[in-house]
């Protein structure tokens, strides 16, 4: 596709509360109104039997099925001036029922840059304390899965076999294993 001129206008043929459909030149893409972005949390609980990653499962309408994901949410959907780390803290507790004493920002990322301009900030959360049930707010109906890190591959394989979608961000957890698997296959 040809790169549009830098001064080409952005047209917005449709905008809702959370999404805008835009065109610039002959390129079509989706964005968040007002520059809204997301916070994603990689939460690790250090249990007696080793580290557990806190994952969530929720139904996703565009997919027509449940999806296994890291806890996440929009920054600024509750308070327009909300900072990303504040949204991350709020979302972790709402979705999972955990609070974290230690937070570290890992950077800004883009999950599907050919179609969506939205970015997310990844936060690493540890020193967790269970403070509630989680499950989200309103009608989110989120299931919480504390998964032993040593069993993350089998958990994801089982959920995929059961018909769940797997969020691309879980490649962060699978990456080392995938690289090792690729190296083993190429050595054969």
Q: Assign an overall shape.
A: globular
Number of DSSP helices? 3
Share of residues in strands: 35-45%
Bin the helical content. 10-25%
Averaged pLDDT: 89
Report the biggest beta sheet as strand number plus sense, adding barrel if it closes: 8 strands, mixed
Uncertain segments of ≥5 residues (pLDDT<50)?
none
Number of strands: 11
Gyration radius over CA: 18 Å
Derived structural class: alpha+beta
Element-level helix/strand string: EEEEEEEHEEEHEH
Separation, N- and C-terminal Cα atoms: 39 Å
Feature tags:
188 residues; alpha+beta; 11 strands; 43% strand
Task: Please sum up the structure shown.
It contains three helices and eleven strands, in the order βββββββαβββαβα. The protein is α+β, with helices and mostly antiparallel strands and 188 residues long.
Structural topology:
Layout: E1 10-15, E2 20-24, E3 27-31, E4 37-47, E5 50-60, E6 65-69, E7 72-75, H1 84-96, E8 98-110, E9 119-130, E10 143-148, H2 152-161, E11 165-166, H3 171-187
Parallel strand pairs: 4-9, 6-11
Antiparallel strand pairs: 1-2, 2-3, 4-5, 4-7, 5-6, 5-10, 8-9
